[in-house]
Design a protein that fits this description.
heterodimer; A: Elongation Factor Tu (Ef-tu), domain 3; B: alpha/beta; five-stranded parallel β-sheet
Chain lengths: 273, 458
């Protein structure tokens, strides 16, 4: 069992949980994830590690179905049945110049350790984060501490500028700003738009994919995705890939495989989707 | 042995084979000739004294029977159910000449089930563990499948302090994620793992060797011997167009969802599975049969086995092929998938196949299937399960570059001792070449335990 140190609401439907998981924390780095199982009947769900502190790890999750809903009901002092990791490759953070970190939705929290790692490797870090509205902009203070420049966008203009992260990125690139690497994490559509934007400029772009996983160790192939014409497993070959080579249409289609089942499960439990 | 009727069993995940009653077991035991030189024992990969335990059953000494089995086999409830006895003990039974062989598997299962019903995990076995002070050494076993559990049990019984490291949240490896509930109830695996724990084996789940600790770190932590039983956890795909469409699953994914995660009890359990009405299972092994039968039980109306050779070449056990046929699975032999097509939402719509004919024997001695030109046809299916095999899981192997690998990335071992190129490190089961059944893996675990004991005692 893995003790829950805290479980706090950050924004509507977005929560931050700290878990005691020494084995994971000891080896974890930016860009990696854990698989958790809440209880004996729980499914194994992947969550990106958003922070590592001694024996603790932090995860940030958005309510998207039964499992994440159950997670919100867990209280400090209670425990998760299983936590295993760190899984996936760590983010390679050499000093390459200027790195633009782009995050959307709950991906903003996942961006934090990555931006921090790029900065401490000596890079200049530009952060662009986007959410639907002001309430959903999370990790703003944390990210401002690890970035040289930061931009916030909201769909309704209630925080930062009105529009999408891609708008800011395009403006920066068009203004001739030297960007050596773009790192994107968030909804698949956001990562796809980011990749399409940087492709003509030949700016190296990485995306951290959010595929459906079961074991997380390469055993089932649930997370397979076409990258550069080859099938890769997001869990063991990724989760980061060259965004210009990822088949995002396929990723998005595969994310909907269990949509009907999930709807049904939420409905009978009275969880509003 | 009595079985659930096909029409009933395809609607549930309960065990198909119902086991023997005491009366049936006694009757079967009485048929044994008790050969002076029993070929059955000689052909058992874990060397069970088969006439010995059958004699005990015959004399109604059931406790004695299970004790005799457990001297050699730590997982009798598992083996009684999933061993291919027809190729081993039963295949060489002297009765084969005139009659059918003794149903040794059913008798083994009877003894194991009798113990489960009549006694709890038996501490008296633990007392039999050697108290030899010299053997207080620590051994690490990587992977809790049949090879690892067997090795761990045998070493614990001679006094080693054994820790089994398991990456998943439950112990048992392929016994819990692969083999379906209706062939091997998970409660049986849990009890047999419980028995190993009673022998002093420590099982650490959620621990991935290669990530949470490297092989070198295990040695640094005081482990003096290591057994690698990491299995074949990397599914192979066909590399044909459309294989990443929704509702194309590896058999590993289908089975893991259904067995380990209990997706058949969704939404009581949280893990979903999305199976359509018409399922094609590609492959001819036991895993393909399991996938087909799981698909039926998950609500598929039509299930095909699609195999590129003929039925004679299928590696699956006859019994499993028979079970699948009884349940209504249709066998499309000499058929090779070429392409999977999808609808506008990215879900499987159909699979294009081509017919094959058998040509000259290939290197495996089986006649090589050759495409018949112009025989393409469309199979109307909405789900495809790819059950064409697995290769060793790379997580541990990549983190251990010092380990020598051979063909298909299988660990190179000395088949007599299971030793690898690294001193003190042994391997067996599906991570090595050839141990493709539960019992073969257990045999390897047993040989490794002997070799590790020898290595650490001298």
């Amino acid at each position: 069992m893995f003790k829950i140190i805290s479980n706090k609401k950050l924004a509507p439907q977005i929560f931050k949980m700290e878990i005691e998981a020494e084995l994971v924390a000891r080896k974890a780095s930016a860009g990696q994830f854990v698989m958790i199982r809440i209880d004996d009947k729980g499914e194994r769900i992947p969550l990106t590690i958003a922070g590592i502190d001694g024996k603790k790890i932090t995860i940030v999750y958005q309510v998207a179905g039964v499992s994440t809903y159950k997670l919100t009901k867990k209280k400090e002092g209670e425990a998760l049945q299983d936590v295993v990791g760190p899984l996936g490759h760590k983010t390679e953070t050499k000093d390459i110049g200027t790195v633009c970190c782009v995050g959307g939705g709950v991906g903003i929290a996942e961006l934090y350790p990555v931006a921090k790692a790029y900065r401490s490797a000596g890079n200049k870090v530009i952060v662009i984060i986007g959410a639907r509205n002001k309430e959903l902009v999370i990790f703003k203070d944390e990210l401002s501490k690890v970035s040289d420049e930061m931009f916030v966008t909201t769909d309704d203009g209630s925080d930062g500028e009105k529009g999408f992260v891609s708008g800011v990125l395009k403006r920066l690139v068009d203004s001739g700003k030297k960007i050596d690497l773009v790192y994107a994490v968030g909804p698949a559509i956001m990562m796809k738009v980011t990749a399409n934007l940087t492709r003509p400029y030949a700016i190296k772009t990485l995306a951290s994919l959010n595929s459906i996983l079961v074991d997380g160790t390469g055993m089932c192939g649930s997370c397979r995705v076409e990258v550069g014409g080859e099938t890769k497993f997001a869990c063991v070959d990724g989760p980061e890939f060259d965004a210009h080579k990822v088949n995002f249409e396929e990723l998005m289609a595969r994310q909907l495989l269990f949509k009907e089942q999930e709807k049904h499960a939420c409905k009978i439990r009275g969880i509003l989707q | 042995m009595r079985k659930q009727l096909p029409k009933d069993r395809i609607k549930n995940f309960n065990e198909v084979a119902l086991g023997m009653s005491e009366e049936e077991a006694l009757k079967e035991a009485c048929r044994c000739l008790f050969c002076k030189k029993p070929k059955c024992s000689a052909n058992c990969p874990v060397e069970i004294d088969i006439p010995g335990f059958i004699n005990a059953i015959k004399n109604k000494k059931f406790s004695e029977a299970i004790k005799i089995i457990k001297e050699k086999n730590n997982l009798p409830g598992v083996c009684g159910r999933v061993c291919p006895q027809e190729n081993q003990c039963e295949g060489v039974c002297a009765l084969n000449v005139k009659d059918k062989p003794i149903n040794i598997g059913a008798l083994e299962r009877f003894a194991a089930d009798w113990e489960n019903k009549n006694k709890k995990a038996r501490p008296e076995y633990a007392e039999a563990v050697s108290k030899d002070g010299l053997k207080k050494k620590k051994v690490a076993v990587i992977g809790s499948g049949p090879a690892g559990l067997t090795c761990a049990g045998d070493l614990a019984r001679v006094g080693y302090s054994v820790t089994v490291f398991e990456a998943l949240h439950a112990a048992g490896g392929v016994l819990v994620y692969g083999i379906p509930e209706f062939r091997l109830p998970k409660e049986i695996v849990k009890k047999e793992v419980g028995y190993l724990k009673s022998l002093g084996v420590e099982v650490r789940t959620n621990f991935i060797v290669g990530i949470n600790a490297t092989l070198k770190e295990l040695f640094a932590e005081g482990y003096e011997g290591v057994f690698i039983g990491t299995g074949a956890g990397l599914p192979s795909f066909m590399n044909i167009p459309g294989e990443n469409l929704n509702r194309v699953y590896s058999s590993n994914e289908l089975l893991t969802r259904a067995n380990l995660m209990k997706a058949y009890l969704f939404p009581e359990y949280d893990t979903p599975i999305n199976i359509g009405k018409k399922v094609a299972v590609v492959g001819g092994g036991n895993t393909a049969m399991d996938s087909a039968r799981v698909s039926l039980r998950l609500g598929a109306e039509k299930v095909y086995i699609v195999y590129r050779r003929s039925e004679k070449e299928m590696p699956a056990r006859n019994e499993e092929v028979g079970n699948a046929k009884e349940e209504g699975v249709e066998f499309l032999m000499l058929t090779l998938p070429k392409k999977i097509s999808g609808d506008d939402k990215g879900f499987v719509k159909s699979m294009e196949c081509v017919k094959m004919e058998l040509g000259e024997p290939d290197l495996s001695g089986r006649r090589r299937p050759v495409v018949i030109d112009g025989s393409e046809f469309i199979l109307d299916v909405d789900t495809v399960i790819v059950a064409i095999g697995q290769s060793p899981n790379p997580v541990f192997l990549k983190a251990t570059p010092e380990l020598e690998l051979g063909k298909w990335d299988k660990i190179v071992i000395n088949p007599e001792t299971q030793s690898t190129n690294i001193k003190g490190v042994y391997a067996g089961g599906d991570a090595t070449y050839g141990d493709d059944t539960v019992i073969a893996a257990m045999g390897a675990g047993k040989r490794a335990a002997k070799a590790i004991d020898k290595y650490l005692s001298t």
